[in-house]
Fold this sequence. Notes:
Elements: H1 2-20, E1 25-28, E2 34-37, H2 43-50, H3 54-62, H4 69-79, H5 84-87, H6 103-127, H7 131-138
Helix pairs in contact: 1-6, 2-3
Amino acid sequence: MIINALLQEKAKIAKVMFALRHLDKVIKHGDGSEKKIPNVKTQTKIARKMNLTFQQIQKYEKASNGISADKLFYLCRVEGYDINKFFAGNPRDLLGDINHTKHEMIHKKWKEIDLNIAEEQRLQNKYAPMLPKLEAEMSYQNTFKG
């Protein structure tokens, strides 16, 4: 079902978006070694750069709202994110670059996203059969005389 596939993509984007805010900052030394420093980009800081509210970023990360392509591209550009991580990768692949102390919190958020998507799927399945009739009524194809 196309709706379910789209909702799964929405969930994946939300999970990646949340995880990317918690990526460690990597400092590379001249000898080839590197040091990871825990890093958190707040929703407020990201929202300011994108001219949005932190609530909107929060809704994207919870999968309450989907993010449009133009905003996703802009987010990747201003934050230096790799757009391929949103589409080609698995959100779990990001965990290796995130401080292990944050993994439990990230898994908890991902469960919340999965629950939000499951609820949206339930509502889509409930209301999808009603849409053709509603659309006909809204376009005045069904008129009631009398």
